[in-house]
Write a structure and sequence with these properties.
about 400 residues; alpha/beta; Rossmann fold; seven-stranded parallel beta sheet; six-stranded parallel beta sheet; 17 strands; about 35% helix
Length: about 400
């Protein structure tokens, strides 16, 4: 190994931070010169319908990233986000940094590639995970053995780990006794996501005298948008001035369109495609209730759901599902209502309860903004990164 003298500077790498709303956690902080970033030059999602590009920042180095999804034959997502240029960038920065933070899962060969390179340079390494389902519940046979071997190797080479939710922390404590910190991998912006008074208009629709429910997210079966649509007719029978707006793009748009078509109330449902941050803010700003009833599906449960955090910042009561990590984002009967997964009647009842009780909506909305701002703001999350990196560098 190279015996380079460690400094307190950090190289951050990983495809999640190519999105400006995630990179924002690192902007405008007290010591920006402490960090370098290696991020994908371009990162496609939703089958290429949306392409993110590396943020414009003097600290950002961009390069080509491969394998942008987890559905490749044989290897699946083991090489997701692989950037061949990583060792070259690390070599060039070797005199400046003491730690590499890979915002990629320990189950990936991508992470192992970075961990090996980092250790060969004599630097410290930290990886991260959102995984909140035990691996043995998702994988079997040779696949489980292979993935476990990669996890063991990554955690053996790493000096610590960040887990984005409580379940992930419990899972990975079985694999390592090294330092694990539990906090979200990016924060949210309370100033950017705050309610603004004004006309209740969204995309030429005037909702001045209406009650608006909204769903914003990936159009995937696991996100539960079809459950919201199925619940809405029951809501409309009690609240005749209600509207539902469903925003997003994804692989299950046909399932959503079929649900809307068969609902019998499609004239009160507005469908819009993927929204940028301004569009998300605009829709949430005219909404009264945010509905996000994700369900367990094919070895996945909600790992956090940042749309729920942003909705709470906008002072919207949130209806979520009492599974996965959603209870960390929504506090039942304090910032929203948690229902059982895949239960249309419970979603209907929760939508009616909130829709017919304006004081309750306001109470939960204000409490939600306070909770999210005090727990998940960019400044608070950044400080947790700073303290954790400082601890690892001092070991």
């Amino acid at each position: 190994m190279f015996n380079q003298k460690s400094t307190n500077k950090v190289l951050v790498t990983g495809f999640p931070y190519v999105r400006e709303r995630y990179f924002a956690t690192w902007r405008h902080q007290p010591d920006p010169e402490r960090y370098y970033f290696l991020l994908p030059r371009a990162w496609p999602i939703k089958n290429g319908k949306i392409i993110y590009t590396a943020p414009e920042d003097s600290r950002v180095i961009s390069g080509r990233a491969f394998f942008p999804h987890s559905h490749f034959p044989v290897m699946g997502g083991l090489l997701k986000g692989w950037m061949p240029i990583f060792p070259v960038v690390l070599w060039r920065l070797r005199k400046h940094i003491g730690l590499v933070y890979s915002c990629t899962e320990p189950v990936l060969l991508t992470t192992l590639y970075q961990a090996i390179s980092t250790r060969l340079m004599g630097k410290k390494h930290v990886c991260a995970s959102w995984e909140n389902i035990p691996y043995e519940e998702k994988l079997k046979g040779f696949s489980l053995w292979l993935h476990r071997a990669i996890i063991w190797a990554n955690l053996a080479l790493s000096d610590g780990m960040i887990c984005g939710n409580k379940e992930s922390e419990k899972i990975h404590k079985r694999y390592t006794k090294k330092t694990i910190a539990q906090f979200v991998l990016n924060g949210v912006d309370p100033e950017k996501f705050s309610h603004k008074d004004g006309p209740k208009i969204f995309r030429d629709h005037n909702f001045t005298d209406a009650l608006v429910y909204s769903f914003i997210g990936a159009i995937e079966h696991r996100k539960g948008m079809q459950i919201v649509v199925r619940a809405f007719p029951g809501v409309l029978r009690v609240i005749p001035n209600a509207w539902l707006v469903v925003a997003g793009t994804g692989p299950d748009e046909k399932e959503l369109e079929e649900a809307i078509e068969s609902s019998g109330v499609k004239h009160r449902i507005i469908r819009v495609p993927w929204l940028d941050d301004a569009g998300v803010h605009g829709l949430m700003n005219i909404s009264d209730v945010f509905v996000y009833p994700g369900i367990p599906y094919k070895g996945w449960v909600e790992q956090f759901g940042f749309a729920m955090l942003e909705a709470s910042l906008m002072e919207l009561p949130v209806i979520g599902t009492n599974v996965g990590s959603t209870p960390q984002a929504v506090i039942h009967d304090q910032t929203g209502i948690l229902v059982q997964p895949d239960n249309v009647q419970e979603v209907t009842d929760a939508m009616i309860k909130l829709g017919t009780d304006q004081p309750l909506r306001q109470q939960l909305g204000k409490a939600g903004r306070k909770y999210i701002a005090e727990t998940f703001s960019n400044e608070i999350v950044y400080r947790k990164f700073y303290d954790f990196f400082t601890k690892i560098l001092s070991q």
